[in-house]
């Protein structure tokens, strides 16, 4: 009986996490207060704290859902079997992450990595670090390089380049992102 209750509780936790992820993708992290998240999840803020020990755990779960969705979309666009050199992977990745359907993910990403906490402790920062690690590994797995190449370093450079492109794009300078990507590819 207890085991069955735990299954139901975990199922409900997954359902509310999905709904809250939808809310954050639509409205951003600024709309991530308990009351709005609870409404989006179809429950009360008190019930959210029943499913999650605190807001930090709740946000970590929701951001994990968002990261998994993004990874799924990337895997559809660039399957695991595809290995590309740096320039080609950058071009393909930018076409995906710079696209309109992924803009909500990228906006949440930029909010997440620029967020600060008042006390210097920020769960979102540790979640962002885990997402970075996962994405760097994803890039490394998709790089086609010579055996002597330093995959981790090249993946880090590609990740930094993508984040820079996102910043330029969000500042309304898509013209510069296009020039930058074409400049790298043309080398």
**Total domain units:** 1
Mean pLDDT: 86
List SSEs in N-to-C order.
Answer: HHHHHHHHH
Which structural class matches the secondary elements? mainly alpha
Helix percentage: over 70%
- CATH architecture annotation name: Orthogonal Bundle
Report the count of strand segments. Answer: 0
Please provide a written account of the structure.
With 187 residues, this protein is mostly helical. It has one domain: Orthogonal Bundle (Tetracycline Repressor, domain 2). Helix content is 75%, strand content 0%. The chain has helices at residues 2-27, 34-41, 45-51, 55-77, 86-97, 103-114, 123-142, 151-170, 174-186. Helix 5 packs parallel to helix 8 and helix 8 (151-170) packs antiparallel against helix 9. The longest helix is centred in the first third of the chain and has 26 residues, at 2-27. The protein is elongated, with a radius of gyration of 19 Å. The model has no long low-confidence stretch (mean pLDDT 86).
Question: Can you describe this structure in just a few lines?
Answer:
This protein is mainly alpha-helical and 187 residues long. 75% of the residues lie in helices and 0% in strands.
Task: Summarize this structure as a short list of keywords or feature phrases.
187 residues; mainly alpha; 75% helix; 0% strand; elongated
How does the SSE layout of this entry go?
Elements: H1 2-27, H2 34-41, H3 45-51, H4 55-77, H5 86-97, H6 103-114, H7 123-142, H8 151-170, H9 174-186
Helix pairs in contact: 1-2, 1-4, 2-3, 4-7, 5-8, 5-9, 7-8, 8-9
């Amino acid at each position: 009986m207890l085991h069955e209750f735990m299954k139901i509780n975990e199922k409900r936790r997954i359902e509310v996490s999905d709904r809250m992820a939808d809310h954050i993708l639509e409205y951003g992290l600024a709309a991530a207060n308990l009351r709005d998240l609870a409404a989006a999840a179809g429950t009360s803020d008190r019930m959210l704290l029943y499913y999650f020990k605190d807001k930090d755990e709740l946000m970590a779960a929701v951001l994990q859902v968002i990261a998994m969705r993004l990874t799924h979309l990337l895997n559809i666009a660039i399957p695991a079997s595809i290995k590309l050199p740096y320039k080609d992977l950058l071009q393909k990745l930018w076409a995906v992450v710079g696209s309109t359907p992924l803009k909500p993910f990228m906006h949440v990403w930029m909010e997440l990595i620029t967020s600060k906490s008042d006390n210097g402790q920020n769960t979102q920062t540790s979640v962002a670090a885990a997402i970075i690690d996962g994405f760097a590994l994803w890039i490394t797995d998709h790089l086609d390089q010579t055996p002597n190449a330093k995959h981790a370093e090249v993946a880090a450079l590609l990740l930094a380049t993508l984040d820079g492109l996102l910043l330029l794009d969000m500042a309304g300078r898509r013209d510069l992102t296009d020039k930058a990507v074409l400049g790298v590819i043309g080398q």
